[in-house]
């Protein structure tokens, strides 16, 4: 189904993982894409174009305001508007240190990418969407944005904050044609989850056992929800943190 026909979307952190899967799914649904990342975005754009879609790629570090402004400006210059934005770029930080042992620099870095990056992207995207009368923003939070995760306080704090920003912005723009939602995946089979397993073979079992379905999510399963939230099919949904977790948060 071409739910995004005629629409223009951007995805941050689209060089691999959930970001790339979301960009490819949005393109399959008919959207023209600006895919950005600090690394790998050209390959995602190439895959979209090879499959017959429209895409440009940008190098964009979401911690840099000038990069973020340039990404939104390039999207509008290439395709004339911005209908949907997926704020996906994120880092894990440390997943193996208790709070009192964790590094301050790691905390700052996780907040800089996961929270301030989303904040900065939303400011640029909302300004553009307001000017043209509407849009849909999807922030990639985490199930760790809704429940605690031991030894991951920085990540958990950043993702709870993303859910908070999502809800506040949804209320601010509800009457102005802009919807703002989040998705909250549990462990998903990407480099981020794989690096948590590296050097800790038990971690894979812990992840799978934590999920009632007994397996990790696939990036494509998260991407399906992203497309739905970006599209008009979800036209009465705003301020919603959509849980995609194989049942984890129900335990
Ligand atoms: P990933 O590590 O495979 O991909 C993350 C992407 O973000 C990479 O391409 C990376 O280059 C990019 N990135 C990192 N720092 C950036 C920066 N400063 N500016 C721009 N891009 C940057 O991880 P993923 O699993 O695909 O994660 C995507 C999102 O999903 C993240 O926000 C993550 O927190 C969230 N998430 C992941 C999982 C999981 O288990 N994989 C679960 C819940 C939420």
Descriptive labels:
251 residues; globular; 7-stranded parallel β-sheet; binds nicotinamide-adenine-dinucleotide; 8 helices; single chain; alpha/beta
Walk me through this protein's architecture.
The chain has helices at residues 17-28, 41-50, 65-79, 104-132, 153-173, 191-197, 202-210, 219-230; strands at 8-11, 32-37, 55-59, 84-87, 135-140, 178-185, 241-244. With 251 residues, it is α/β, with parallel strands linked by helices. Strands 3-2-1-4-5-6-7 form a seven-stranded parallel beta sheet, sandwiched between helices. The protein is globular, with a radius of gyration of 17 Å. The mean pLDDT is 96.
SSE blueprint:
Blueprint: E1 8-11, H1 17-28, E2 32-37, H2 41-50, E3 55-59, H3 65-79, E4 84-87, H4 104-132, E5 135-140, H5 153-173, E6 178-185, H6 191-197, H7 202-210, H8 219-230, E7 241-244
Parallel strand pairs: 1-2, 1-4, 2-3, 4-5, 5-6, 6-7
């Amino acid at each position: 189904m071409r739910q995004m026909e005629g629409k223009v979307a951007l995805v941050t952190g689209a060089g691999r993982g959930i970001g790339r899967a979301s960009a490819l799914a949005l393109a399959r649904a008919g959207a023209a894409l600006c895919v950005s990342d600090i690394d790998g975005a050209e390959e995602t754009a190439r895959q979209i174009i090879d499959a017959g879609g429209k895409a440009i790629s940008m190098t964009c570090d979401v911690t840099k305001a000038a990069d973020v402004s340039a990404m939104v400006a390039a999207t509008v210059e290439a395709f004339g508007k911005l209908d949907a934005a997926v704020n996906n770029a994120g880092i894990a930080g440390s997943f193996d240190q208790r709070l009192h042992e964790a590094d301050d620099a790691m905390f700052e870095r996780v907040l800089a990418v996961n929270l301030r990056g989303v904040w900065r992207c939303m400011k640029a995207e909302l300004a553009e969407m307001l000017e043209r009368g509407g849009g849909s923003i999807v922030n990639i939070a985490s199930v760790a944005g809704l429940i605690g995760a031991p030894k991951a306080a920085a990540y958990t704090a950043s993702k709870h904050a993303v859910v908070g920003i999502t809800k506040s912005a949804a209320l601010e723009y509800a009457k102005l044609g802009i919807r703002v939602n989040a998705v909250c995946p549990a462990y998903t089979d990407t480099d981020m989850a794989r690096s948590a397993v590296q050097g800790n073979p038990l971690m894979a079992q812990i992840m799978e056992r934590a999920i009632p379905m007994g397996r990790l999510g696939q990036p494509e399963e998260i991407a399906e929800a992203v497309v739905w939230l970006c599209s008009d099919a979800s036209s009465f949904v705003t301020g919603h943190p959509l849980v995609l977790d194989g049942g984890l948060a129900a335990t």
